[in-house]
Automatic annotation (TrEMBL):
Record InterPro entries: ATPase_dyneun-rel_AAA (IPR011704), Methyl-DNA_Rec/Restrict_Enz (IPR052934), P-loop_NTPase (IPR027417)
Designated name of the protein: AAA family ATPase
One Gene Ontology term of the molecular function aspect: ATP hydrolysis activity
Segments forming domain ATPase dynein-related AAA: 58-205
Pfam families in the cross-refs: AAA_5
Region (Disordered): 306-326
PANTHER family attached to this UniProt entry: 5-METHYLCYTOSINE-SPECIFIC RESTRICTION ENZYME B (PTHR37291), TYPE IV METHYL-DIRECTED RESTRICTION ENZYME ECOKMCRB SUBUNIT (PTHR37291:SF1)
Source taxon at top rank: Bacteria
Length: 326
C-alpha cells in the first residue's frame, strides 16, 4: 500500500547508511597511533624498552601527561617491527572499552551475526603464523579501562612464563599467546583505575617510570631555536613546578607540553590553553602555591637587567596580566 502511494521509495540497507560490515572505518584522522616518531634505534630509552620487551614480553610506560610515553612506545614498536606497519596495532583504552572490542565480539551479517576478532586476537593469530618476526600491540591509556574485563582469560597468559600455553576464549576456540607478540602500554599513575592495573601487570610486565625531564626540555627548546634567555626562564619555571609536584604529583608538567614552543607567543598559547588549567586544578586547595607558580611563570618572560640598568628596567616586558583592569 505504502509503496503504491510513493513508488520511488526504497528500503535503505545498513551499507547504504555507511554502517554495514562492508563500510570501511577511517583509519587516518581517527587513529590512536601517534605520528611516526623520528627517534634513533640507539636512543637509550628506546633501547631500554626494546631490551625489556624482549625479556618480559610487555612493558608499561608510566608517567604523568606530557612525558613522551606514547611517542616512545610508537618509536620502540617501529624498531621492533622493522617499520612493518602490518605487524603493529595501536589501540586506545577508555572507560567503556570492553572484551568484545579487544578480544572477541559479534558483528552483524546478512543472515545474522558473525564473530569479529578484536585487535588482540587478530594480532595473536598473525604472530602465531609468523614466528620469526615480532608483532607489537601498543595500548594507549591502559589505566582508563577495566583491564581484567578487557583482557578476560588472556590476562593470565600474557605473562612470559605462560606464553604458548593453550586456553579457551569466550566462543570456545583455543588460543595461545605467542612469544613473539609484544605488548607496549602507556598509563597515567594518577588515573582512578591505576591500582587495578598495577595489581594485574606489575608481576607480568616490566615497568618504566617516565618522568618530566629538564634535560629533554632543554633539547626541545634548543631544537626549536628559542632565545637562550627565554629558554632559561622556561627551564627555571619547569623545575620549580615539578619541585612542587614532589608533594603534589598531580602538578607534574611533562616536557612534551613545550614541543612547539619557540617564542613568547607560542609560550603564552601553551599557558593560556593548557598549562593554566593544569596548575589551577592541581593547586585548587593551595592558593599560596598556586600564586607562587603563576608568579614564577610571569617571571619567565623577564630578562635579568644588566649591571647599571635602572631598577625595574629589563630587556623584555612581561606579558600583559589578563586579570588587570577587571
Amino acid at each position: 500500500m505504502f509503496e503504491e502511494l510513493i513508488p520511488e521509495v526504497r528500503t535503505l540497507t545498513a551499507d547504504d547508511l555507511g554502517i554495514g560490515i562492508k563500510a570501511k572505518a577511517a583509519t587516518g584522522h581517527a587513529s590512536s597511533a601517534p605520528d611516526a616518531p623520528e627517534i634513533a634505534a640507539n636512543d637509550p630509552r628506546v633501547q631500554e624498552i626494546i631490551r625489556l620487551a624482549n625479556q618480559f614480553g610487555g612493558v608499561l610506560l608510566s608517567g604523568p601527561p606530557g612525558t613522551s610515553k606514547s611517542f616512545y612506545a610508537a618509536a620502540a614498536a617501529q624498531h621492533l617491527t622493522g617499520g612493518d606497519n602490518a605487524r603493529c596495532r595501536f589501540v586506545q583504552f577508555h572507560a567503556s572499552y570492553q572484551y568484545e572490542d579487544f578480544m572477541l565480539g559479534f558483528s552483524p551479517e546478512n543472515d545474522g551475526f558473525g564473530i569479529k576478532k578484536g585487535p588482540f586476537l587478530s594480532l595473536a593469530h598473525d604472530a602465531k603464523d609468523d614466528p620469526g618476526n615480532a608483532y607489537v600491540l601498543v595500548i594507549d591509556e591502559l589505566s582508563r579501562a577495566d583491564v581484567g574485563r578487557v583482557f578476560g582469560e588472556a590476562l593470565t597468559y600474557v605473562e612470559r612464563s605462560k606464553r604458548e600455553l593453550p586456553f579457551r576464549i569466550a566462543n570456545g576456540d583455543e588460543l595461545v599467546v605467542p612469544t613473539n607478540l609484544i605488548i607496549l602500554a602507556t598509563m597515567n599513575p594518577f588515573d582512578r583505575g591505576v591500582d587495578e592495573v598495577d595489581a594485574a601487570f606489575e608481576r607480568r610486565f616490566a615497568k618504566i617510570s617516565m618522568d618530566p625531564s629538564a634535560e629533554l626540555l632543554e633539547g626541545i627548546l634548543v631544537d626549536n631555536e628559542m632565545d637562550e634567555a627565554l629558554a632559561a626562564g622556561v627551564l627555571r619555571w619547569f623545575r620549580r613546578v615539578n619541585e612542587h609536584a614532589r608533594k603534589n604529583p598531580a602538578a607534574a608538567v611533562g616536557h612534551a607540553y613545550f614541543a612547539d614552543a619557540s617564542d613568547t607567543a607560542s609560550l603564552m598559547d601553551i599557558w593560556e590553553y593548557q598549562l593554566k588549567y593544569l596548575v589551577q586544578r592541581a593547586f585548587r586547595r593551595d592558593v599560596n602555591t598556586l600564586a607562587d607558580v603563576e608568579a614564577a611563570w610571569k617571571r619567565t618572560f623577564v630578562v635579568p637587567a644588566p649591571e647599571g640598568t635602572p631598577m625595574g628596567a629589563s630587556g623584555r616586558e612581561p606579558p600583559p596580566d589578563p586579570e588587570a583592569g577587571q
